[in-house]
Amino acid sequence: MPKFLHTADWQMGRAFTRFETEDGAALVEARFEAIETLAQLANEHQCDAVLVAGDVFDAQTVSDRTIRRVFNATKGFAGPWVMLPGNHDAALAESVWTRAQRLGAVPENVHLALQPGVIDLEPRGLSILCAPLTQRHTYGDLTEPFSGYETPEDFLRVGLAHGSVQGLLPDEIDSTNPIAPDRAEASRLDYLALGDWHGTKQIDERTWYSGTPEPERFRNNEAGNALIVEVSEPGATPNVTSLPTGRYQWHQWRETLAVQSDLDQLLERLNALPESAVVDLRLEGSITLAGEETLLKALSVAEARFRSLRCERSGLQLAPTDEDIAALKADGYVGEVVESLRERQQEGAQDDAARDALAILAGLLREREQEASQ
Ligand SMILES: [Mn+2]
């Protein structure tokens, strides 16, 4: 019974420059490890092939080393791999793929679908109908010719394409690289393996986006999986299983703090995240001096625990309570300064200088207090 692994959107060579150097490097490494994981899964599940539905590479200009490392990472699975060019790695006359071939980096069991047509994987009983992108954007449906492709009668007809299923995906109005929503049925496909949408998404019983095996952005939904597809015989309904492959989970939280329990809940949620979290926080609202102290300490602990933690606090106003101010024991001139910084913050929305000055001053006063009590 033919079985294959469906994956896509590896985006190899993507640099994570917005992150700390060590975190960015770890995120890059995780993508190579994801390919090794796919190879391992293909073995474990005794797959007949691995199908990669486009955007193996993030750009045509990735380094030779990246190209070689990508193919090296496939070595764990000795069966056939079929790789399809997507919009990021389109099969231009001169492309990342032709460079890979010139480098001699492509193993014999890896088929590059650089031209539209059918790749028959003979002993496996699989016909792969390929619709590679030969430019970054197209406006016609490249899967249309699938209907005219003849395949051996006892072979599965499996489509491989990269683009947007029309009318079904959010945020994709006006999208390029359109794919007809009824392609599988119209072209008598047993299964249509799609790439471009980075989350795992079922379109119909024969059509799926596998999503990227390793999440690489915050707005992904359901990213970090691979699909194992089993079809008992031509025409049978595919049995599709989603398996987790991702190492890191990305979380982007936008929180507004107003009362103490908001902060408590935020820290509780943060605590519950695993070490493999990549966290992007943006905090707004207001926080007391005591709350700020708790927050900073928790962030310091969290940033050492998670793969990455970034927190944007410029929209979070420091609102010292009367207890906060009393605890500072600021009198005389210092007391007046504290008071005027408080006022400036309340007047000017997001007065960063006043906020920072107040935080620094509060910190210094607290230190002085601690020293005095020793
Ligand atoms: Mn794409």
From TrEMBL:
Hydrolase in keyword set: yes
Q: One matching Pfam family, short form?
A: Metallophos
Domain Calcineurin-like phosphoesterase, which positions? 3-94
- Give the Gene Ontology MF terms in alphabetical order: exonuclease activity
Superkingdom as given in the UniProt entry: Bacteria
Q: Which Gene3D superfamilies match?
A: 3.60.21.10
Q: Does the keyword Nuclease apply?
A: yes
Alphabetically list the UniProt keywords. Exonuclease, Hydrolase, Nuclease
Per its record, how is this protein called by name? Metallophosphoesterase
Q: Identify the species of origin.
A: Marinobacter manganoxydans MnI7-9
Which taxonomic lineage is given here?
Answer: Bacteria, Pseudomonadati, Pseudomonadota, Gammaproteobacteria, Pseudomonadales
